[in-house]
Structure formats: C-alpha cells, structure tokens
DNA sequence: CGATGTAGTACGCGACACGAACCACTTGCC
DNA sequence: GGCAAGTGGTTCGTGTCGCGTACTACATCG
C-alpha cells in the first residue's frame, strides 16, 4: 500500500540504476537470501523508507485501538514507569506543555491516571489504569506481529543480522 | 536526546536481559564491528527504535528549513513527478481531502504550483517551483548527512550490510 | 524570610488528518 | 445524443498534536 514513501530522499530517482555511491559494489559474498537479489538503495534511502514502513505499521496498530502513535508510545513508556510530566516529556521528546493535553486525552479515556506525588506537592505521577495496561499489552502483541510481518521476506539469518545491526546503530544513540 | 523512544514495544522492559527469544543466540561469527558488542534488542524493538531515530533526523532536517516531515516528503515526491492530487495522496498514504490543505500550504510558500491538466479539465497537476526544487535539493543533502551520521558508529561492512538488508525488506513492500 | 528555580497548567495558534458533502467533469452504456 | 455512474478536487467541521508564552503553586537556597 505505501508505494513510494520517497521521504524527500532520492529514492524515486533511481529505478533501474546502479547501487549508491556510498555502498561499495555489492560484495556479494554471504548473499544467499532475499537481500542478494535486490537492488541496494543505499543507507540513506533504505533507512528512510524503512522508517516510514515501520511508522506505518505502528500507526496501523494504534489506529486499530483507536489511538495515535504518540498515545501508544505514551502507554508504552508507562508500562514500567510512573514518571512525572517533565520526565515523561523527556522520554517522548516533547515540550512539557504538550504533555498536559496528551495526558488529558489519555486520562479522559481512562487509560492513564494522575496521582499526587508524595514527596513533592507540585508534581503529579502518571500511571496506567488497568484498562491502559490491558490495551498496551494487546497493542504490544500487535506491534510484534506487524513488524515481524514486515521482515517476513527475509531469511532467519538475514532477520537476525538486521536485528543485530539495527540494535548496534540504536545503541550508539541512547547513551547519557 | 531521544532517550527511550519505547514505541509501545517491549524495549524498556529489558535492560540487562538476555537477547530476544526470536533472535537465535548471537552466533558471533562474522562479528568484529560495533554490532558484536551490543545487546540485541530483537527485530521488533530494534526496528521500532531505529524508525524513531530516523524520523527524528528527518524532522530535524525539515525543521531547519521551516518545514514538517510531511512537507519535505511532499517536495521529495515531486522531484521527479508531476502527479495529480489523487496520485499524490496515494504516494503519501493520505486521504485526498488531506492533500488540499497540504498543497495549499506549500503553494502559499511558493514551493509548489498547481497547473491545469491538459487532458482532464477536472484534474490539476502539482509540480515544484524553482524555489521548491532548490529547497528539496538542499534538504536532500542534509538528510543524507544526518542519516549517515546515525550510522557513523558502524563499520563500512556493517553499514553496507544494513543497507542491503533494509533494501531487501523495503523491496518486499513496494510491489504493485 | 525573600529570591530564585522547578512542576504543571492554561491559552492561543497553526499544522495535520479524517470523513462527509459537494461541484465539475469524464466515461460507459443504452 | 443523452443520461447514469464514476472520478478528481475542494470545502467544511471536528479532533489531535505540538509549540511558545504566561501564570500559579510549591521547593530550595541563601
């Protein structure tokens, strides 16, 4: 369904071209799986398009439960935490003023609860309600299914390689 | 900056755990690069988190030029096409009614132009203005830089492997 | 105690996305 | 030819999201 997803990158320019300049000629060594017969888009385009695919999958799951991606993420963060608004904002990369509305809407649906902090009378602690817990549990199952479906064409070896490489890339940006 | 990005997946549950069940024990064979020393998050979590990293990078580039991700994507799609609104909507995965506003705002900034189709008096064709072209050109350079920076920790071999695998995954979803 | 900082909220604004309703035109069919 | 059905776009109303600014209440430091 997502056809081009061009992502403002150069994806669409190349249709029957040679591989990207950055990727040394397909060293074609260990290649026996699906990856071997596919035109290499280059790091930039492949990651950009991949990100849109994944986001679309997440959006689909969220929509199935009447949520947006950001709401689903909110619930996800709260699975094992009971942070204040500020901390929550940091986790989601939002401004604290954006959190108020986000939590308001989730609270209105009884997915989330605000409780007064015992140690700081200014602060509130945000936590999942039972319904929130249940919803995020089912959501996680669906996310798992959807993303696994994305990688279904790959061989087991390729999939676990991709997992390792993506993990390594991600690991380089979560420090601090 | 994006700390957890938990993405409603199980990312945050595991902090010091064993690798995911789906990923067979790190076969540690070809491993000499960064990926070898990193905890494997599993396909689902690693791809989810990766997608948020990439989206954040794209959002940063867009913001640098006063655009949103979707606007940047719009310009990207128009780089080598002059589609109608409907087709544009398909490319971006949006409803046609959403396109009107999107193109309106881009047109108001002189990045995009509507012209009457010569063959169908109902249709309009959307194309980039010279300024739109210039902006998307600079944007693409920045996107390239940003995404490459994300993958900077990987070795050349890992990077091109990742590129191949991501390309293969993406290729399985662009058919039709 | 007062000055300064921090946690949250309120408000206004604009972008984004959808569905439903609506024209204007095209196409298919009799 | 002419009408029914389909298609391309827009408009409108609604809701979500995200920001910046301003403001209140409390904490902390001196």
**N-to-C CA distance of chain A:** 38 Å
Which parts of chain A are unreliable, with pLDDT below 50 for 5 consecutive residues or more?
A: 1-5, 7-31
The outline of chain A comes out as elongated
The topology string of helices and strands of chain A comes to HHHHEEHH
The pLDDT mean of chain A sits at 83
Instruction: Count every helix of chain A, treating DSSP H or I runs of 4 or more residues as helices.
Output: 6
Give the name of the CATH architecture of one domain in chain A. Answer: Orthogonal Bundle
* Amount of helix of chain A: 40-55%
Oligomer: homodimer
Instruction: Report the CATH C-level class of one domain in chain A.
Output: Mainly Alpha
Strand content of chain A: 5-15%
The most extensive interface, with participating residues per chain, is:
A-B, 87 and 87 residues
Numbering strands along the chain, what is their spatial order in the largest sheet of chain A? 1-2
CATH topology of one domain in chain A: Arc Repressor Mutant, subunit A
CATH superfamily of one domain in chain A: Winged helix-like DNA-binding domain superfamily/Winged helix DNA-binding domain
Radius of gyration of chain A: 20 Å
> Which sheet architecture does the biggest sheet of chain A show?
2 strands, antiparallel
């Amino acid at each position: 369904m997502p056809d081009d997803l061009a992502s403002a990158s150069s994806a669409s320019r190349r249709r029957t071209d040679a591989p990207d300049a950055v990727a040394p000629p397909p060293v074609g060594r260990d290649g026996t799986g699906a990856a071997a017969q596919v035109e290499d888009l280059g790091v930039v385009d492949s990651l950009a398009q991949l990100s849109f695919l994944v986001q679309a999958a997440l959006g689909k799951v969220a929509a199935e439960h009447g949520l947006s991606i950001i709401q689903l993420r909110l619930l996800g963060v709260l699975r094992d935490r009971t942070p204040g608004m500020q901390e929550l904002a940091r986790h989601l990369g939002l401004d604290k003023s954006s959190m108020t509305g986000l939590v308001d809407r989730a609270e209105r649906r009884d997915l989330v609860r605000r409780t007064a902090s015992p140690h700081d009378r200014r602060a509130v602690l945000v936590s999942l309600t039972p319904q929130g817990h249940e919803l995020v549990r089912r959501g996680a199952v669906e996310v798992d299914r959807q993303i696994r479906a994305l990688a279904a064409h790959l061989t087991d070896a390729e999939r676990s390689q991709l997992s390792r490489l993506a993990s390594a890339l991600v690991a380089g940006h979560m420090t601090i």
